[in-house]
Fold:
Amino acid sequence: MSDQAHAHHKESFISKYVFSQDHKMIARQFLITGITMGLLGGLLSSFFRIQLGFPNANISWMQAILGKWVMVDSTGHGTLDPNFYMAMVTIHGTIMVFFVLTAGLSGTFSNLLIPLQVGSRDMASPFVNMLSYWFFFMSSVIMFISLFIETGPASAGWTIYPPLSALKLAIPGSGLGMTMWLVSMILFIASALMGALNYVSTVLNMRTVGMTMTRLPLTIWAFLLTAILGILSFPVLFAACLLLLFDRSLGTSFYLSDIVTSMTEGVVHVGGSPVLFQHLFWFLGHPEVYIVILPAFGITSELLAVHSRKPIFGYRAMVGSLLGIAFLSFLVWGHHMFVTGMNPFLGSVFLIATLIIAVPSAVKVFNWLATIWKGNIHFRTAMLFAIGVVSLFISGGLTGLFLGNAAMDFRLHNNYFVVAHFHLVMGSSAIFGMFAGIYNWFPKLFGRKMNEGLGSLHFWITFACVYAVFIPMHFMGLDGVPRRYYLTTIFHQFDQWVEVNKFISVFAFIGLGAQLIFIYNFFNSIFNGKRSTRNPWKANTLEWTTPVHGIHGNWPGEIPHVYRWPYDYSRPDIELDYLPQTMSDEDIMAKVNYASEDYEPTATDAPMEYEEPDAHGVKESEEIIMLNLIKRKKKKD
Structure:
């Protein structure tokens, strides 16, 4: 699309805020919708943590919230309906994995940063970009509405294994709720594919002059590979959901075998296999793990360098590890299926591939630690959450070595060890990456900064609660406490874990409450936050060269050219703390001339040293600071 089409122009309220084709506004739409869905997913988790932590408590007060799903007996004692418990677990998992960590994280930051960091006016197709958000929004609405239907939402688990998901009368949540789940996911997949195709096209075809692939920020590498993973894997889930709808509605038998679904009509399902669905689901499901975590990896890599004031350690190794993870993620789906009775030889192949994928992951961790080692670390909120990603990924990743071993997985697969591992290595790590990105690029989204004091409070409470909730679950799993169970107190061998479950629930409630600090900080800062300068973190990437309050088209004039990689921080041969990608070596030498005694600035030089205040009265000073640093270097020499 031409620059003229992307040029800044007056827009109506509808075209600017509702059906926007500006990638920055679409990023805000993804973000706010993702935050809303995240609050819903967190609320559901608090409801079932009440059940797990306090199984004998009177919850009649919750009837006002959950209606008939809270059963009140003649004495006024209220208990949670077991069917709805499973439904909440299902919708919680679905919302957090797909609607928050996939769309909320990747949708937000891929939309915001890809055009800005590669030097493009907008996405390759702004119209398709708009459609991708609205498909996501419709998908979210359908998933939310399914909570209120009479028979309840889908309750076959977030993995929706047949036969519970294939037989409409299997359980209450197998009816209309399951159908709505499938329709919602089909719309979601359409949204994800439209977005991913746009991201790949933009990165490959719309980079500015000088922006070679080896000068791309690691964020862009992560978003690019995430999009490629989505393009290759989401169609498989689409096919799996479509075939499941056929089994439910047309009497086919893709996933069902030797089952009579209606004695009156004599509908018999023969020849299908529920394990086929598992293969299709996990062929998407394991790349999905990296679709979720790779954007967090990219954000973390960027922020550790920026806030440590150091070049990223091993840029090419980091890119190589991303490529290795992306490739190997398609070869390990079977480690989710060790207990299905697969051939032991096939299981050993998946075991070896699973252990191999730990190598590029370890490379990333090593490079992160080397990046911050002896750095001039600025412990801003964004940096705290980036360090939190590293901590959680190490903690959760180590437990993956147990589950990747087929012999160990037979013992641990269906208990709380899996829950703990999954939530640490993917769920919490990705959420922390999302928070890190929000705090860091909030000035680019809204032209203001979030409150650092509230941000630090949000981080430390959340960080402590994540470990308090999920570390004890590892020990519960080692003792065999089963996951997904509505009630474990009926098994006397698990009595010693009753108090631990209470402990976990209390910290889960505190952690959820801490997110209210974030919500207040986020929305209050949109309107009342401190106004940001153009480049508040003194970063090198191109997004910080655009106006504080972005325009449609990103740059008011010519798109800047790129002359260097994005991680020139604290170079020993130059006293500058950072060197933007737009600064060539000739620019540096030209600025040094300012320090000459017989040099008098000309009219063409003036804009380089001084910049008029923007429309909001914020005067940019980065060039002046840079010039002064060069002058001091010149005097020392």
In short: The chain is about 60% helix and 0% strand. Strands lie at 70-72, 78-80, 259-262, 267-269. The CA atoms of residues 13 and 181 lie 33 Å apart. Residues 593-622 have pLDDT under 50 and may be disordered.
